[in-house]
């Protein structure tokens, strides 16, 4: 179970769960808004023995709360593995919450930067492309937090399109290298006939992004930075 979810009244929710089992099992996914059965919605999934599969689920609108929880239970014998779980408002925009996009548009920003700040010095951009549910979560050593890699280069570009802002991408000059940085530039701007442009097309984005603004590293002189170096370097 995961508590602490904020839900809004009159908003439908949709989600997916990635499951694998060594025996046929019945899995119940519940969205719980409060005490009592009237505040619990449940969908039952019949999960067959085999490799990971993605199952969709949907919940109707209910009352607003800031302390809902999603609960997953299984019935049967054997082992069940949960690869990933996602719950989003059904009216999300390219994976971003609609009300957040609406508020961000009011800022009338010109440029958005990604990845931001100290995190970039330990960021491996190739961990954050392709199937979201197959991306490896990593520990961010700068902020001592788990980075799920749900938002990578392609999702950032989708956000920039939604907000009509110019993307500004920073390459990793901390624990990264020039080769990886060049690959990222090619992934963003190369044609589908280039190796990284072909990979971008295979990930569902055939057209180059034409990113104009690039940064090299972040506060490389800071002792708090991964791969820090002296200022004169």
What features would you describe in this structure?
The chain is α+β, with helices and mostly antiparallel strands. Helices cover 17% and strands 35% of the residues. The protein has helices spanning 98-105, 153-163, 178-189, 195-202; strands at 2-7, 13-21, 25-32, 40-47, 50-59, 65-75, 80-89, 111-114, 138-140, 145-147, 166-171, 213-216. The strands form 4 sheets. A 4-stranded antiparallel sheet has the order 1-6-3-4, with no helix packed on it. Strands 5-2-7 form a 3-stranded antiparallel sheet, with no helix packed on it. Strands 8-11-12 form a 3-stranded parallel sheet. Strand 9 and strand 10 form a beta hairpin. The radius of gyration is 21 Å and the shape is globular. The mean pLDDT is 93.
SSE layout and pairing:
Layout: E1 2-7, E2 13-21, E3 25-32, E4 40-47, E5 50-59, E6 65-75, E7 80-89, H1 98-105, E8 111-114, E9 138-140, E10 145-147, H2 153-163, E11 166-171, H3 178-189, H4 195-202, E12 213-216
Parallel strand pairs: 8-11, 11-12
Antiparallel strand pairs: 1-6, 2-5, 2-7, 3-4, 3-6, 9-10
Keyword list:
single chain; 233 residues; alpha+beta; 4-stranded antiparallel β-sheet; 3-stranded antiparallel β-sheet; 17% helix; globular
Give a short summary of the structure.
With 233 residues, the chain is an alpha+beta fold. 17% of the residues lie in helices and 35% in strands.
